[in-house]
Amino acid sequence: MIIKVVEHEKIGIRHKNSYQKKHISKENAELLHKIEEIKKKRIFKWGYNTVSPQQWIGVIWLNDISIEIMPKISDNNNESNIMGSLISMLNVVYDVKIQDKIIAKLGSKESGIIEILITLFLKELDFQYNKGIYKEYIKEEKNLYSMKGKIDFNKNINKNLFSPHRFYCRYSSLSENNIINQIVKFTLIHIDKLSKNRFNKGLIKKLVYSLENVDYYKDVSKEIKNIKFNRQSERFRETINYCKMFWDGFGTSITTGKHEVESFLIDMNDLFEKYIYRTLKKIYGNKNIKYQENNKFLLTDTLNSKNKKINLKPDIILEGENGRTIIDTKWKIVDKFINPADAYQMNAYIDNIDNSREVILLFPKCKNNDRIVRDFIFNKKEDKIFKIRTVDILLAGKKEFTQEIKNILK
Predict the structure, then answer these.
(1) Binning pLDDT at 50, 70 and 90, where does residue 74 land?
(2) N or C: which terminus of the chain has fewer CB atoms within 10 Å of its end residue's CB?
(3) Which DSSP symbol is given to 18?
(4) Confidence of residue 205 (pLDDT cuts 50, 70, 90)
């Protein structure tokens, strides 16, 4: 059974599940609590016998039901349009190339967002592995019966003093057991838990089997962030970008008695912020855009000037000829006016970040929130402008979206 909801939609908590009424059992509600505890993040809003997903979208598989959470983009209820916009954002943020015609062919309604992403990843990986599994030279040390490479004389004496027929050698060998294949194997094993499509599961099994000589590590977080490509490995760049996307969304597996929980959740706050940053970088270039610069602080200790508190880290800074524009993105539904805390945050930025001339608070466009689009000045700082703007995420991936961003920054 699948319960489909959008962000902030209420799911009832009752004695038993009902996908028609969008109810889950109390037992499943407890499992959702456990996901929050393990991830140490607020994913849901809890009410009296209700639970609402917040800015997280994706899928949660409980023991007898799954919850699919879609983003509340604009006021459009067309699932295909929403799916297309979401995938366009993922394309840009993770630098994977997914064509609209491929999305249409897969059938978004039938597949669901996660199954589509898994299918696309497997197609790309299978295409590359059909050309040949990636191999690279790995440095090895082994005690051998015949000499290979160079002898490590110190270790050879220690290990082979009474075995003169053996040689402790250092050498390089062309191996499948490299970091790229290790990251791929990790990703395949995890998405196998997420996929429900028989074709996808069969292809995963085939690909994992082809990597039987590759080590499996339970944590590849450092390696996946720092991986570097060369001429031979460059063809796997898109494959690894998919792996990064899945890594960011992997939830923690939970097993309690008979119950198993798997989840794949994307933080829309984070995705929206990175999508705007990548779009701006494409328009204005790397030199003019700074992302999450964190070298400014709100407070300095009077007794020790090196002791600073409350780090100021705006999402994006755009360097212009007449000064800096600070942009902060908020994935929120706002139709009356902004939260005072957001205005205080913008005031702190304009006061403490050098050469800043304006701050822009950017929201996704939805019904009636154009009424919040205004320009303000901060009291006693008439040369500092505070702008509130909205942007239509349904235009993601289109030229109109880029033009909309340019208009906002005129």
Answers:
(1) low
(2) C
(3) B
(4) very high
Q: Report d(CA 283, CA 260) in Å as an integer.
A: 45
Q: What is the CA radius of gyration of the chain?
A: 26
Beta strands in 115-166 (DSSP E): 136-144, 150-151
Beta-strand ranges (E) seen in 119-239 are 136-144, 150-151, 167-175
Say if residues 210 and 133 touch (Cβ distance below 8 Å): yes
Q: Using the CB atoms, write b or e for 58-83: b if 16+ within 10 Å.
A: bbbbbbebbbbbbbbbbebeeeeebb
- 17-73 confidence digits (pLDDT tens): 877 788 888 888 888 888 888 777 888 889 888 999 888 888 888 777 888 888 876
276 within 8 A of 405, measured Cβ to Cβ: yes
Mean of pLDDT values over 67-85: 74
Q: Tell me how far the alpha carbon of residue 229 is from its chain's centroid.
A: 21
Residue 177 makes CB contacts below 8 A (sequence gap 6+) with 138, 213, 214, 215
State how far the Cα of 134 lies from the Cα of 236, in Å rounded to an integer.
8
Q: Is 12 helix (H, G, I), strand (E, B) or coil?
A: strand
Please say if the pLDDT value at position 228 is more than 90: no
Distance CA 129, CA 307 (A): 53
CB 90 within 8 A of CB 83: no
Cα 227 from Cα 229, distance rounded (Å): 7
For residues 204 and 234, the answer to whether their CB atoms sit within 8 Å is no
Half-sphere exposure in the Cβ direction for 352 (13 Å, CA): 21
Whole-number pLDDT of residue 77: 61
pLDDT tens-digit map of 103-151: 555 555 555 778 888 888 998 899 999 988 888 887 877 787 787 777 8
d(CA 58, CA 262): 11
* Average of per-residue pLDDT across 305-322: 84
φ, ψ of residue 9 in degrees (nearest 5): -80, 140
Amino acid at 367: K
| DSSP notation for 265-292 | EEEHHHHHHHHHHHHHHHHH-GGGEEES
Q: Which residues partner with 259 through β-bridges? A: 256
Instruction: Report the pLDDT value the prediction gives residue 258, as an integer from 0 to 100.
Output: 62
